[in-house]
Amino acid sequence: xxxxxxxxxxxxxxxxxxxxxxxxxxxxxxxxxxxxxxxxxxxxxxxxxxxxxxxxxxxxxxxxxxxxxxxxxxxxxxxxxxxxxxxxxxxxxxxxxxxxxxxxxxxxxxxxxxxxxxxxxxxxxxxxxxxxxxxxxxxxxxxxxxxxxxxxxxxxxxxxxxxxxxxxxxxxxxxxxxxxxxxxxxxxxxxxxxxxxxxxxxxxxxxxxxxxxxxxxxxxxxxxxxxxxxxxxxxxx
Length: 237
Prior knowledge:
The protein is built from eight helices and seven strands, in the order βαββαβαβααβαααβ. The protein has helices spanning about 15-25, 55-70, 90-120, 130-135, 140-160, 180, 185-195, 205-215; strands spanning about 5-10, 30-35, 45-50, 75, 125-130, 165-175, 225-230. Strands 3-2-1-4-5-6-7 form a seven-stranded parallel sheet, with helices on both faces.
Protein backbone atom coordinates (compact mmCIF):
# COMPACT_ATOMS: atom_id res chain seq x y z
CA UNK A 1 0.00 0.00 0.00
CA UNK A 2 1.38 3.37 -1.03
CA UNK A 3 1.83 5.78 1.87
CA UNK A 4 -0.74 8.63 1.83
CA UNK A 5 0.77 11.70 0.19
CA UNK A 6 -0.13 15.35 -0.26
CA UNK A 7 -0.99 15.73 -3.93
CA UNK A 8 -1.73 18.82 -6.03
CA UNK A 9 -3.62 18.48 -9.31
CA UNK A 10 -3.67 21.63 -11.45
CA UNK A 11 -6.78 22.11 -13.56
CA UNK A 12 -8.38 19.60 -11.25
CA UNK A 13 -12.01 20.68 -11.49
CA UNK A 14 -12.93 18.79 -14.68
CA UNK A 15 -11.82 16.20 -17.21
CA UNK A 16 -8.57 14.35 -16.63
CA UNK A 17 -7.68 16.50 -13.62
CA UNK A 18 -10.99 15.80 -11.87
CA UNK A 19 -10.79 12.06 -12.56
CA UNK A 20 -7.23 11.99 -11.21
CA UNK A 21 -8.06 13.99 -8.09
CA UNK A 22 -11.02 11.76 -7.24
CA UNK A 23 -9.11 8.52 -7.86
CA UNK A 24 -6.23 9.67 -5.65
CA UNK A 25 -8.67 10.75 -2.93
CA UNK A 26 -10.27 7.28 -3.19
CA UNK A 27 -6.80 5.84 -2.53
CA UNK A 28 -6.54 7.81 0.72
CA UNK A 29 -4.26 10.65 -0.37
CA UNK A 30 -4.61 14.28 0.74
CA UNK A 31 -5.61 16.03 -2.48
CA UNK A 32 -5.77 19.69 -3.48
CA UNK A 33 -6.78 21.03 -6.87
CA UNK A 34 -6.25 24.41 -8.47
CA UNK A 35 -8.47 25.97 -11.10
CA UNK A 36 -9.43 29.46 -12.17
CA UNK A 37 -12.42 29.30 -9.81
CA UNK A 38 -12.47 27.51 -6.49
CA UNK A 39 -15.99 26.11 -6.33
CA UNK A 40 -15.91 23.06 -4.01
CA UNK A 41 -17.06 19.83 -5.69
CA UNK A 42 -15.93 17.05 -3.31
CA UNK A 43 -15.61 17.38 0.46
CA UNK A 44 -12.48 15.20 0.42
CA UNK A 45 -10.63 17.59 -1.92
CA UNK A 46 -9.27 21.07 -1.17
CA UNK A 47 -10.21 23.40 -4.04
CA UNK A 48 -8.14 26.57 -4.55
CA UNK A 49 -8.47 29.37 -7.09
CA UNK A 50 -5.15 29.87 -8.87
CA UNK A 51 -4.10 31.32 -12.20
CA UNK A 52 -0.81 29.60 -13.00
CA UNK A 53 0.31 32.48 -15.18
CA UNK A 54 0.59 34.51 -11.93
CA UNK A 55 3.59 33.59 -9.73
CA UNK A 56 2.08 35.34 -6.68
CA UNK A 57 -1.12 33.32 -7.02
CA UNK A 58 0.95 30.14 -7.18
CA UNK A 59 2.83 31.06 -3.98
CA UNK A 60 -0.47 31.78 -2.22
CA UNK A 61 -1.94 28.46 -3.34
CA UNK A 62 1.07 26.50 -2.08
CA UNK A 63 0.96 28.33 1.25
CA UNK A 64 -2.69 27.33 1.66
CA UNK A 65 -1.92 23.69 0.83
CA UNK A 66 1.08 23.69 3.18
CA UNK A 67 -1.03 24.93 6.07
CA UNK A 68 -4.07 22.71 5.45
CA UNK A 69 -2.65 19.46 4.05
CA UNK A 70 1.14 19.63 4.37
CA UNK A 71 3.86 20.17 1.79
CA UNK A 72 3.10 19.03 -1.76
CA UNK A 73 4.78 15.68 -2.41
CA UNK A 74 3.19 14.90 -5.80
CA UNK A 75 2.46 17.50 -8.49
CA UNK A 76 0.18 16.60 -11.38
CA UNK A 77 0.57 19.45 -13.87
CA UNK A 78 -2.60 19.09 -15.90
CA UNK A 79 -3.97 22.61 -16.40
CA UNK A 80 -4.07 23.79 -19.99
CA UNK A 81 -5.95 25.85 -22.55
CA UNK A 82 -6.41 25.80 -26.31
CA UNK A 83 -6.64 28.66 -28.81
CA UNK A 84 -6.86 26.71 -32.06
CA UNK A 85 -6.23 28.59 -35.30
CA UNK A 86 -4.43 28.03 -38.59
CA UNK A 87 -0.84 29.28 -38.62
CA UNK A 88 -1.36 32.31 -40.87
CA UNK A 89 -4.37 33.42 -38.84
CA UNK A 90 -2.87 32.79 -35.40
CA UNK A 91 -2.09 35.93 -33.44
CA UNK A 92 0.99 36.37 -31.27
CA UNK A 93 -1.38 36.54 -28.31
CA UNK A 94 -3.00 33.20 -29.23
CA UNK A 95 0.45 31.63 -29.30
CA UNK A 96 1.92 33.24 -26.19
CA UNK A 97 -1.20 32.73 -24.02
CA UNK A 98 -1.26 28.99 -24.69
CA UNK A 99 2.49 28.57 -24.13
CA UNK A 100 2.40 30.72 -20.98
CA UNK A 101 -0.43 28.69 -19.46
CA UNK A 102 0.43 25.18 -20.58
CA UNK A 103 4.24 25.18 -20.56
CA UNK A 104 5.46 28.14 -18.51
CA UNK A 105 2.64 27.65 -16.00
CA UNK A 106 3.64 24.01 -15.50
CA UNK A 107 7.27 25.12 -15.07
CA UNK A 108 6.23 27.64 -12.40
CA UNK A 109 4.23 25.00 -10.54
CA UNK A 110 7.06 22.46 -10.69
CA UNK A 111 9.67 24.97 -9.57
CA UNK A 112 7.53 25.88 -6.55
CA UNK A 113 6.72 22.26 -5.69
CA UNK A 114 10.37 21.18 -5.97
CA UNK A 115 11.40 23.24 -2.94
CA UNK A 116 9.71 20.95 -0.41
CA UNK A 117 10.47 17.84 -2.47
CA UNK A 118 14.19 18.61 -2.34
CA UNK A 119 14.06 19.08 1.44
CA UNK A 120 12.13 15.81 1.84
CA UNK A 121 14.33 13.97 -0.68
CA UNK A 122 11.17 12.53 -2.25
CA UNK A 123 8.81 13.74 -4.92
CA UNK A 124 6.79 13.03 -8.02
CA UNK A 125 6.37 15.47 -10.92
CA UNK A 126 3.81 14.29 -13.46
CA UNK A 127 3.08 16.38 -16.55
CA UNK A 128 0.01 15.89 -18.74
CA UNK A 129 1.06 16.38 -22.36
CA UNK A 130 -0.82 15.24 -25.48
CA UNK A 131 -0.36 12.97 -28.46
CA UNK A 132 -0.29 16.13 -30.62
CA UNK A 133 2.89 17.23 -28.84
CA UNK A 134 4.84 14.71 -30.93
CA UNK A 135 2.36 13.84 -33.68
CA UNK A 136 1.42 17.44 -34.56
CA UNK A 137 -2.04 18.73 -35.38
CA UNK A 138 -3.15 21.22 -38.03
CA UNK A 139 -4.54 24.33 -36.37
CA UNK A 140 -2.76 23.62 -33.10
CA UNK A 141 0.76 25.00 -33.61
CA UNK A 142 0.60 26.75 -30.22
CA UNK A 143 -0.93 23.84 -28.30
CA UNK A 144 1.38 21.24 -29.87
CA UNK A 145 4.44 23.40 -29.12
CA UNK A 146 3.40 23.80 -25.48
CA UNK A 147 2.79 20.08 -25.04
CA UNK A 148 6.03 19.06 -26.79
CA UNK A 149 7.89 21.48 -24.53
CA UNK A 150 6.71 19.57 -21.47
CA UNK A 151 8.70 16.53 -22.62
CA UNK A 152 12.04 18.33 -22.78
CA UNK A 153 11.29 20.13 -19.53
CA UNK A 154 10.33 16.96 -17.65
CA UNK A 155 13.36 15.07 -18.90
CA UNK A 156 15.67 17.89 -17.83
CA UNK A 157 14.04 17.88 -14.38
CA UNK A 158 14.45 14.09 -14.23
CA UNK A 159 18.20 14.49 -14.72
CA UNK A 160 18.48 17.46 -12.37
CA UNK A 161 16.42 16.12 -9.47
CA UNK A 162 16.87 12.36 -9.72
CA UNK A 163 19.65 12.19 -7.14
CA UNK A 164 17.14 13.50 -4.57
CA UNK A 165 14.65 10.70 -5.25
CA UNK A 166 12.37 12.99 -7.29
CA UNK A 167 10.95 11.56 -10.50
CA UNK A 168 9.60 13.54 -13.45
CA UNK A 169 7.39 11.84 -16.02
CA UNK A 170 4.95 12.70 -18.79
CA UNK A 171 1.66 11.11 -19.78
CA UNK A 172 0.60 11.69 -23.37
CA UNK A 173 -3.15 11.17 -23.85
CA UNK A 174 -4.88 10.89 -27.18
CA UNK A 175 -8.50 12.00 -27.59
CA UNK A 176 -10.39 11.85 -24.29
CA UNK A 177 -14.11 12.13 -23.57
CA UNK A 178 -13.96 15.58 -21.94
CA UNK A 179 -15.67 18.94 -22.40
CA UNK A 180 -12.90 19.90 -24.84
CA UNK A 181 -13.65 16.90 -27.07
CA UNK A 182 -17.41 17.40 -26.71
CA UNK A 183 -17.06 20.96 -28.03
CA UNK A 184 -15.94 19.62 -31.45
CA UNK A 185 -18.43 19.04 -34.24
CA UNK A 186 -19.69 15.49 -34.83
CA UNK A 187 -17.63 15.33 -38.04
CA UNK A 188 -14.47 16.40 -36.20
CA UNK A 189 -15.07 13.83 -33.46
CA UNK A 190 -15.59 11.07 -36.04
CA UNK A 191 -12.47 12.07 -38.01
CA UNK A 192 -10.35 11.90 -34.87
CA UNK A 193 -11.82 8.62 -33.62
CA UNK A 194 -11.34 7.00 -37.04
CA UNK A 195 -7.57 7.55 -36.72
CA UNK A 196 -7.36 5.65 -33.41
CA UNK A 197 -6.51 1.95 -33.86
CA UNK A 198 -8.73 1.03 -30.90
CA UNK A 199 -11.58 2.89 -32.57
CA UNK A 200 -12.71 4.96 -29.59
CA UNK A 201 -11.76 7.86 -27.36
CA UNK A 202 -10.47 7.34 -23.82
CA UNK A 203 -12.42 7.92 -20.65
CA UNK A 204 -10.79 10.36 -18.19
CA UNK A 205 -10.54 7.55 -15.63
CA UNK A 206 -8.24 5.62 -17.99
CA UNK A 207 -5.75 8.51 -18.01
CA UNK A 208 -6.16 8.95 -14.25
CA UNK A 209 -5.19 5.32 -13.62
CA UNK A 210 -1.77 5.80 -15.23
CA UNK A 211 -1.25 9.09 -13.41
CA UNK A 212 -2.05 7.39 -10.08
CA UNK A 213 0.43 4.62 -10.90
CA UNK A 214 3.20 7.17 -11.59
CA UNK A 215 2.40 8.83 -8.24
CA UNK A 216 2.71 5.52 -6.40
CA UNK A 217 5.64 3.74 -4.78
CA UNK A 218 5.42 1.11 -7.55
CA UNK A 219 6.73 3.69 -10.05
CA UNK A 220 9.81 4.61 -8.01
CA UNK A 221 12.25 3.57 -10.77
CA UNK A 222 10.46 5.31 -13.64
CA UNK A 223 11.67 8.79 -14.53
CA UNK A 224 12.08 10.77 -17.72
CA UNK A 225 9.43 8.59 -19.36
CA UNK A 226 6.73 9.62 -21.83
CA UNK A 227 3.81 7.22 -21.52
CA UNK A 228 1.29 7.26 -24.39
CA UNK A 229 -2.36 6.64 -23.47
CA UNK A 230 -3.79 7.17 -26.91
CA UNK A 231 -5.32 3.94 -28.22
CA UNK A 232 -2.35 3.59 -30.58
CA UNK A 233 -2.85 6.95 -32.31
CA UNK A 234 0.73 8.13 -31.78
CA UNK A 235 2.62 4.92 -32.59
CA UNK A 236 6.10 5.63 -33.92
CA UNK A 237 6.25 9.05 -32.30
